[in-house]
């Protein structure tokens, strides 16, 4: 049975919480597509308020000294590997470029995440039968 709050996300940086093991905090790591192209850096983690699981990484790219940076959300389901300095994603840069636009005013709107998950080909994490990725079991 779904609770009313299931699926609502908040940026980890907007909470008093932190990642339990600092070595597993992927913020500020480089993000690479399946071909090794640079996509930017993990700027934040979007966490499910109910289950306290990371559902999306917020990736910032471009800009100078943080000004003019573009951001996108990528589902954690798209992560294929995590190293000490990189997060590797299964999609290509061109696919990620075509993702729904980032709108900070919609960060807490579950329908926004549904459309992003659909774009990437994943079922919503609040849907029956969803299985959370086996992190960090595939670490390099």
Q: Distance between the terminal alpha carbons, to the nearest Å?
A: 36 Å
Please state the CA-atom Rg, rounded to the nearest Å: 14 Å
Fold-level CATH name = SH3 type barrels
CATH level-1 class: Mainly Beta
Largest sheet features = 7 strands, mixed
pLDDT < 50 runs, ≥5 residues:
none
State the helicity in percent bands. 10-25%
Beta-strand percent range? 25-35%
How many domains make up the 3D coordinates?
Answer: 1
Provide the succession of SSEs: EEEEEEEHH
InterPro entries: Bac_photo_RC_H_C, PRC-brl_dom, PRC_barrel-like_sf
Pfam families: PRC
Protein name: Sporulation protein YlmC with PRC-barrel domain
Domain PRC-barrel: 22-84
Short overview:
11% of the residues lie in helices and 28% in strands. The chain has two helices and seven strands. Strand 4 and strand 5 (70-75) form a beta hairpin.
């Amino acid at each position: 049975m779904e609770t009313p709050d299931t699926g609502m996300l908040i940026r980890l940086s907007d909470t008093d919480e932190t990642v339990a093991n600092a070595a597993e905090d992927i913020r500020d790591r480089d993000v690479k597509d399946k071909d090794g192209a640079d996509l930017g850096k993990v700027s934040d983690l979007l966490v499910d308020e109910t289950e306290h699981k990371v559902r999306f990484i917020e990736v910032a790219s471009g800009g100078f000294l943080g000004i003019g940076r573009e951001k996108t959300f990528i589902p954690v389901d798209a992560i294929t590997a995590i190293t000490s300095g990189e997060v590797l994603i299964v999609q290509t840069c061109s696919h990620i470029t075509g993702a729904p636009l980032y709108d900070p005013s919609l960060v807490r709107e579950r329908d926004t995440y549904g459309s992003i998950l659909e774009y990437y080909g994943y079922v919503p994490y609040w849907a029956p039968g969803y299985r959370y990725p086996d992190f960090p079991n595939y670490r390099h």
